[in-house]
Design brief:
disordered N terminus, 12 helices, about 40% helix, alpha/beta, single chain, TIM Barrel, about 290 residues
């Protein structure tokens, strides 16, 4: 038993040291000058601190606040429709039990998606939208708006059968291939999208669990593993984006984004690195600071 505890403690120490190595240059207190290149402003779930997340109202609010792109999440319903919601579970945003993959689209669309909203503005019932509804909203805008579509997995972490084809077909139908980046934490999903539509831009999402999985290789190993996927973008939790990791990504030719950055101090720090996009629940604050 003592040996088991010793091995477990050693493993935990290795993971902690690897993460500290990756974050080693995050301690700088003086940001560099903000890059002259424009930084794309991305409204996270439409701007979930301003409107009920992943609803048509949120996407319109994000666009109205000056976002260059809206970010959204898609799952597949029991009858094969693309449903825009972050969690595979219905409970957090609709207060209903069950999972998206077990419901048909018509029933999902009848649900009110305001349960998790805690913002100041009042909204009437906001139904769960389909991807097609969001794409139609984007088409109606007077200015061009880009998309970041995150393809999700189900409640067990499994890929939805055929979801990549469904997303690509929807984007083709609406003529939005060029305006879209497909993003995912599930890298096989990205590789499948590349097979179906090579012209689509792809972005690998990186969180703490992924950084720890690399082990002791540090920033160079992280950047190499992402570059080997053949994606154009890497998008990382802003708390883990050190200058050293940023430089390693750049050295591999990757475009870089940070999520989800919601206060002025962090937006300024991340912008000073010269990232290509910043994703925020506060697109209004992004516009105030970056325009």
């Amino acid at each position: 038993m003592h040996r088991i505890h010793t091995v477990a403690a050693y493993a935990a120490t290795v993971l902690l040291l690897s993460l500290l190595l990756i974050l080693s240059s995050c301690t700088s207190t003086e940001p560099r000058l903000i890059s002259a290149a424009p930084i794309a402003k991305v409204a996270h779930r439409g701007g979930s601190l301003l409107a009920p997340e992943n609803t048509l109202a949120a996407f319109q609010r994000g666009i109205d606040e000056g976002a260059d792109a809206i970010e959204l999440d898609v799952h597949l319903s029991a009858d094969g429709r693309l449903i825009v919601m972050h969690d595979p579970s219905l409970f957090r945003t609709t207060a209903h039990e069950g999972y998206i993959g077990d419901w048909i689209a018509l029933d999902l669309q009848s649900l009110d998606a305001r349960a998790s909203y805690r913002g100041d503005a009042a909204y009437p019932v906001e139904h769960v939208p389909t991807l097609e509804q969001v794409l139609a909203l984007v088409e109606r805008q007077e200015r061009s708006v880009a998309l970041q579509v995150e393809i999700k997995t189900d409640q067990k972490g499994r890929r939805y059968e055929g979801i990549e084809e469904a997303v690509v077909n929807a984007l083709r139908l609406h003529g939005l291939i060029e305006e879209t980046i497909i993003i995912s934490f599930d890298f096989p999903t990205l590789l499948r999208v590349r097979e179906i539509e090579p012209s689509l831009k792809l972005g690998a999402l990186v969180n703490r669990a992924y950084l720890e999985s690399i082990g002791m290789g540090g920033p160079a190993a992280v950047a190499a593993s992402i570059a080997d996927l053949g994606v154009e973008y890497v998008a990382i939790n802003y708390a883990y984006l050190s200058q050293r990791l940023f430089d390693e990504f750049r050295s591999r030719g990757l475009l870089i984004g940070a999520w989800t950055v919601n206060n002025e101090k962090d937006i300024r720090r991340i912008a000073a690195m010269g990232v290509d996009f910043i994703t925020s629940d506060r697109p209004d604050l992004l516009s105030e600071l970056l325009d």
